[in-house]
Design goal:
The protein is mainly β. The chain has two domains: 20-110, Beta Barrel (Elongation Factor Tu (Ef-tu), domain 3), CATH 2.40.30; 117-190, SH3 type barrels, CATH 2.30.30. Helix content is 14%, strand content 39%. The chain has helices at 82-85, 97-103, 113-116, 149-153, 184-190; strands spanning 20-30, 35-40, 53-55, 61-68, 73-76, 92-96, 120-123, 126-137, 140-147, 159-163, 169-173, 178-181. The strands form two sheets. A six-stranded antiparallel sheet has the order 3-4-5-2-1-6. A hairpin with a 2-residue loop joins strand 7 and strand 8 (126-137). It is elongated and about 60 Å long. Residues 3-13 have low confidence and may be disordered.
């Protein structure tokens, strides 16, 4: 299973710094004390704890005074009125890889998206390509594989999707930098 802690689209392209990961965007203000809607781009809401700090686009940092996961609301330290909080509307919140690893606890068989990008995708001993992106379509994650040049030369698609489910993804080995799949070649040929 893959749990995400990075943006679901344009993962790194919108980051002000390549060492940062987009994890949320501040929305509209709510109520009279400057609370704001928090739009998550992560499967780890636990990282939005009181006193957690995040970087925003202009490079400055903000600190959370509180987070209500049931209502998806945050309060930012020093932004105690709706007028002050409105200055942060649509601000993207970024965190580092190190903070992500520290704040987010993975269970066995779970991986961060950023650890999977770039891994080779194999079916048996056939190299299908390299994982270029992970797409979330509805509730399902898909591996977007950039097809190997030898297979493209045979007239196959340059990219294809593999559902990230046990039926297709057999094993992920970060040390070997490989993802082993079953049925991936069929999906590529049908693309």
């Amino acid at each position: 299973m893959v749990r995400v802690t990075v943006s679901m689209s344009n993962r790194f392209r919108n980051s002000p710094d390549a060492s940062l990961i987009h994890v949320a965007t501040l929305g509209r203000t709510v109520a009279l004390k400057g609370d704001m809607k928090l739009n998550l781009f992560t499967d780890f809401p636990e990282q939005f704890a009181k006193n957690a700090t995040f970087t925003i686009e202009n490079g400055s940092t903000i600190t959370l005074a509180s987070y209500n996961p049931d209502r998806e609301l945050v309060h930012i330290v020093g932004y105690d009125t709706p007028e002050a909080a409105k200055l942060l509307t649509n601000a993207k919140l970024y965190t580092t890889y190190e903070d992500t690893r520290e704040r987010c606890n993975l269970k066995k068989g779970e991986f961060f998206w950023f650890d999977l990008i770039g891994l080779a995708v194999f079916e048996g001993d056939i190299a299908l390509g390299v994982l270029d992106e992970i797409e979330r379509i509805g509730p399902q994650d898909y591996l977007l594989v950039k097809t190997g040049s030898a297979l493209v030369a045979k007239g196959l698609a340059e990219t294809f999707l593999i559902p990230y489910i046990d039926r297709f993804v057999l094993k992920t080995d970060l040390e070997a930098k490989k993802i082993m799949v079953d049925g991936g070649l069929d999906l590529l040929e049908a693309s």
